[in-house]
Write a structure and sequence with these properties.
This protein is mostly beta strands. It is built from 14 helices and 43 strands. The longest helix is centred in the N-terminal third of the chain and has 27 residues.
């Protein structure tokens, strides 16, 4: 009720602000006019001629041959003000799964302002000019070995000759969508007694003990501790975000500055003095200046400081394991009988007190999350990051027309450190009398001493520096023929403290482009890559790609079509050689171990001798090579009626020559001699389609985008030897889930009187009883074991969908972002879903099997000991469908009338209110939305404004 009241006030406050603005406008302006967004029907057509940044190169959408997709935050930030880049990308770009996986291949390479390897999470959307994903090998070839999984190119804003000043500010609250639900003390004790009975053991808790815990008459003597109680957390956690940018200059000098501040309150509220939450400050600045008529240069500087102060313990995480009946973490001083033991007065007066309580525990449990949060101390996590870039552009047309060059040098510093202050503190075990009064206290821990230990630990210390040089030549050979050639030399080095080897990337790349009448395009791109992970003489390789494109609407028969404004067919193929999958250095070398045992010789009945031996642990393979991605893409782009954009691709990517220590290449006795080899191969294939439709009437505009991606994978070469062919991984998805096929739970009638299984049933893992999981015997040998493991699902959804809808009516704009996934599966894991032994029980055990619930049970019989058969084997019993449809984000935006904006000497003002993680529709929503670990999943409500001066 408290959450609802506060939330209602926040939303009503946001609506009231909008109404006030409307009222003020009506009173101060005699005549109002509607501000209609600039969304001309031919906007999509004009996008074809806008520049697209591909990292090392810049071209137009019209001229790109490879498969790529681009978004410009300036086109949607007014209606979708999310500041997290991954949130903004998810569902918005064709071919992108989630926020960073292109076509399901894995985490794509992030390139920020031409520099690969930077983090996309360090950016906010307000400082980004453009984001482009490079999907196939041809369009990403210039990035060499790093482009194995595709490339996401982020270009930040730069200055202009027009002075601009913008501010975006928002504030809001987040509230947990779902919290863990554990059993109370009495229920846990009853169920645990049942578990012991199932194991043939006696009761651990008496009926009187259970009733004492259930009655709640003395919750400190008979505790019922819910660590996930609302009182331990802020019902609504506040957050705020402010960004401001300023740009301007002249033809010779331009500058841009972006300042940002973000504050996130702490979800944990046990000790507000320690749990302060996180604050982040960032500044980005750049200057572009003209040195002379043929040299231009730029300097970029970025600095980010992130500070998060917390207690030493996280109650949300630690509460998953502490059973509710173990002890009371707090003891009320009011319940101490000083008259029965006057010495307790001195103990209490000398002890640290916490709002009328002492810290409680016992000899076994003398700390825990609550005590650590109250008295253990605090920690401050600091993140500091800085980046410096310098670029110099040379116009070499004096040498020959169309010739230019560029040099780019960058330096990054990244540091995360933890400052912790640890205290010693006392924990008291009480003795109670029959009147439920404390008559004795024993300190079972330490004395109360503050600031005893101060530690400073550097968790991450990394330095990255890089360089690339670019030589470019553009030439219109004749009226019909043009060429564009680029030669790139790139080097990158990342040093991480405590890692013996720096991560190094270097390559030379070439791009040759030809176009005929802006109608037929051809491209050859390739990179000569280098890797220090391979042996001398085998460290370099040429990775070629080719691409072709044909714009049919340049043909006379289609050029003046009234409905087909643009149509391009394109295809590409190529190779990417990479060392990203080679997990270590010197894998091509043999490894020997000295003193690897000994052997005796001589007269064994006499003195004899013993010599140490040297044995081989791994064989040598100087021919170890790069892993190889082979890419094929066929696609099209089309614009219809100047209102609808269509694009689609079919693709296949083969990831072969994967580096493993193959066993099938060698006989069994050769085991210790096996070297690393290039062996396994995986195939990814599928298709992607995207559509954007824009239309406009007198008072409204409507824009809808829809995207679908289908990706399937198959393992085509696998190092494996299985006795039964159905267990072979070859031919199955790369992300396959392997496990046992469940046939439900054993019933009482499937056991003989002596407890053995009836004769027609195969044996299972260990001794099973009624209520245990029954598995299918796949090979018919009447024994269920690991030979019966088969493919039972797949983790990644082959189908993913995204849609963004923007509808403007007069001064109001409604935006929604929708996503969906079909075909993926999940696995219930961990003690929350599979508790065994004396683990804490969640509400899932309420569906446990008993003879009375045999027909409706959703959980196996309880057991107080480890149960390999039920809980330690993945099976279809624990698998669930991950199919889902989500309303990721909705926002309502109001544009203040132009007359009011003009009177305020501004260019634009709009107010907005938004909700993120609004709703999910799925069969297993409860499982998907319950996030265990450090924090729950949140829903975000915000209200803010964006202003342009």
């Amino acid at each position: 009720m408290i959450q609802l009241n506060i939330l209602t006030k926040l939303l009503l406050g946001g609506c009231l602000c909008m109404l006030c603005c409307l009222s003020v406008t009506a009173q101060t302006i005699d005549s109002t006019s509607t501000v209609v967004l600039e969304n001309q029907p031919d906007k999509l057509e004009s996008n074809l001629q806008e520049e697209v940044h591909l990292g090392f190169q810049t071209t137009t959408k019209h001229d790109i041959i490879g498969s790529s997709s681009t978004v410009k935050p300036g086109d949607f930030l007014k209606f979708d003000t999310t500041q997290w880049v991954r949130d903004a990308l998810g569902g918005r770009l064709t071919g992108l799964r989630g926020g960073s996986s292109i076509r399901g291949l894995g985490e794509a390479l992030i390139v920020v302002d031409g520099i690969p390897g930077r983090s996309i999470d360090l950016l906010n959307m307000e400082e980004i000019e453009e984001i482009t994903i490079l999907k196939d090998a041809n369009v990403s070839a210039l990035y060499g070995a790093m482009a194995r999984n595709g490339v996401i190119v982020v270009t930040t804003k730069r200055g202009s000759t027009e002075t601009q000043f913008n501010i975006s500010a928002s504030t809001g609250v987040r509230l947990p969508i779902s919290m863990p639900n554990y059993l109370n003390s009495a229920d846990y004790m009853e169920y645990f007694n049942e578990a012991r009975a199932n194991d043939g053991l006696g009761e651990l808790y008496s009926a009187e003990q259970i009733q004492n815990h259930r009655s709640g008459t003395n919750p400190y003597r008979y505790p019922d501790v819910d660590f996930h109680d609302d009182g331990n957390f802020n019902p609504l956690t506040p957050y705020s975000n402010v960004t401001a940018d300023f740009s301007g200059g002249s033809e010779n000098t331009r500058f841009y500055i972006n300042l940002g501040f973000k504050s996130d309150g702490s979800f944990q509220s046990v000790n507000p003095e320690n749990d302060k939450g996180a604050k982040r400050f960032n500044v980005r600045g750049n200057i572009d200046f003209k040195v002379n008529d043929w040299i231009k240069s730029s300097l970029d500087v970025v600095a980010i400081i992130d500070k998060n102060k917390t207690s030493l313990s996280n109650i949300y995480a630690e509460g998953d394991s502490i059973r509710p009946n173990l002890y009371s973490p707090l003891l009320p001083i009011s319940e101490i009988d000083f008259s029965a033991n006057p010495e307790l007065r001195g103990i209490v007066d000398a002890a640290n007190q916490y709002d009328g309580f002492l810290l409680g525990g016992n000899q076994v449990y003398n700390g825990g999350a609550i005590a650590s949060i109250y008295a253990g101390g605090y920690q401050t996590n600091m993140t500091r990051m800085s980046q410096v870039n310098n670029a110099i552009d040379f116009d070499l047309s004096a040498i020959t027309e169309g010739l230019s060059a560029k040099s780019y040098v960058s330096f990054d510093f990244y540091n995360i450190y933890n400052l912790s202050v640890q205290n010693e503190y006392a924990v008291y075990e009480p003795t109670w009398n029959d009147d439920n009064k404390i008559i004795d206290l024993v300190n079972v821990r330490d004395n109360d001493l503050k600031d005893q230990v101060e530690n400073v630990n550097t968790d991450v210390f990394a330095i990255r520096y890089g360089f690339y040089g670019l030589l470019n030549y553009e030439k219109q050979l004749t009226e019909d023929h043009a060429i564009d050639a680029s030669l790139i030399g790139f080097a990158n080095n990342t040093y991480v403290r405590d890692e013996k080897q720096s991560a190094k990337n270097s390559h030379v790349a070439l791009s040759l482009n030809y176009d005929y009448k802006k109608k037929i395009y051809a491209n050859f791109s390739g990179a000569y890559v280098n890797s220090v992970k391979l042996a001398d003489g085998n460290r370099a390789k040429l990775a070629p790609t080719v691409g072709l494109a044909y714009i049919l609407t340049q043909e006379p028969s289609l050029k003046d079509s009234s409905w087909l404004n643009y149509f391009k067919l394109r295809t590409s193929m190529g190779v990417v050689y990479t060392d990203l999958g080679i997990q270590d250095y010197f894998l091509y070398d043999a490894i020997y171990q000295q003193d690897g045992g000994g052997y005796s010789w001589g007269d064994t009945n006499g003195a004899g001798y013993n010599n140490a031996s040297t044995k081989i642990l791994r064989g040598q393979n100087p021919n170890l090579d790069f892993e190889k991605r082979t890419d094929y893409t066929l696609g099209f782009e089309a614009l219809l009626f100047s209102k609808m954009w269509l694009e689609g691709n079919v693709f296949q990517s083969i990831i072969g020559e994967q580096v493993i220590r193959a066993s099938t290449l060698y006989p069994d006795y050769y085991n210790s001699f096996r070297p690393y080899n290039n062996f396994n191969k995986d195939q990814y294939s599928g298709f992607e389609v995207g559509m954007n439709y824009r239309t406009k009437t007198e008072n409204s505009t409507f824009d809808i985008g829809a995207r679908a991606l289908y990706t399937t994978s198959k393992r085509t070469i696998v190092d494996e030897v299985y006795e039964d062919a159905y267990q072979n991984r070859k031919g199955t998805p790369v992300d396959a889930i392997w496990g046992l096929e469940s046939l439900g739970l054993f019933g009482v009638d499937e056991f003989n009187e002596d407890g053995s299984l009836t004769g027609n049933l195969p044996t299972q893992y260990g001794t099973v009883k009624p209520g245990d999981i029954k598995y299918k015997d796949q090979n018919g040998d009447n024994v269920v074991n690991d030979q019966d493991i088969v493919q039972i699902g797949r983790y990644a959804a082959p189908w993913s969908f995204g849609s963004d809808i923007t509808w403007s009516y007069k001064a109001f704009t409604f935006f929604a972002l929708l996503t969906a996934e079909i075909g993926g599966d999940g696995m219930l894991t961990g003690n929350y879903y599979r508790p065994q032994g004396d683990a804490k029980y969640s509400d899932v055990v309420e569906g446990r099997w008993t003879e009375a619930t045999a027909d409706t049970a959703t959980f196996p019989r309880l057991s107080s000991t480890g149960n390999t058969n039920n809980f330690e084997k993945n099976s279809t019993y624990w698998m669930y469908s991950n199919d889902n449809f989500r309303i990721q984000r909705v926002q309502l935006t109001f544009d203040l009338p132009s007359q009011l904006v003009d009177k305020l000497k501004m260019k634009d003002i709009n107010l907005f209110t938004s909700v993120s993680n609004l709703a999910e529709f799925s069969k297993n929503k409860d499982v998907r939305q319950l996030q265990l670990g450090f924090n729950p999943m949140f829903r975000y409500y915000s209200f803010g404004a964006r202003m342009k001066f």
